[in-house]
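Design request, tokens follow.
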């Protein structure tokens, strides 16, 4: 059942989400039991969490500094300095 839920959610569900899914289906399982069985079966989600602390959040990489297209000039350099707020 664990493998079915894991595959059904395209390897995105970890042990805690799988426990919640199995409980919805009426099965009584514990988080540690599912985690152990997943480890034995070699099932590792795409974004794994570290145990026992909180899950790490995913931080996407949004800047590509190696694009080679140059950069925009600083348009504020030609402006006069501000004298007030």
């Amino acid at each position: 059942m664990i493998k079915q839920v894991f595959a059904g959610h395209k390897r995105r569900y970890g042990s805690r989400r799988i426990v919640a899914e199995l409980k919805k289906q009426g099965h009584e399982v514990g988080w540690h039991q599912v985690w152990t069985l997943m480890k034995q079966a070699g099932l590792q989600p795409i974004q794994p969490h570290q145990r026992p602390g909180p899950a790490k959040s995913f931080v996407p990489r949004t800047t590509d500094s190696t694009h080679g297209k140059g950069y925009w000039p600083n348009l504020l350099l030609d402006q006069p300095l501000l004298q007030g707020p």
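Comment from the thread starter after seeing the answer: thanks! Helices lie at 2-8, 15-24, 31-41.
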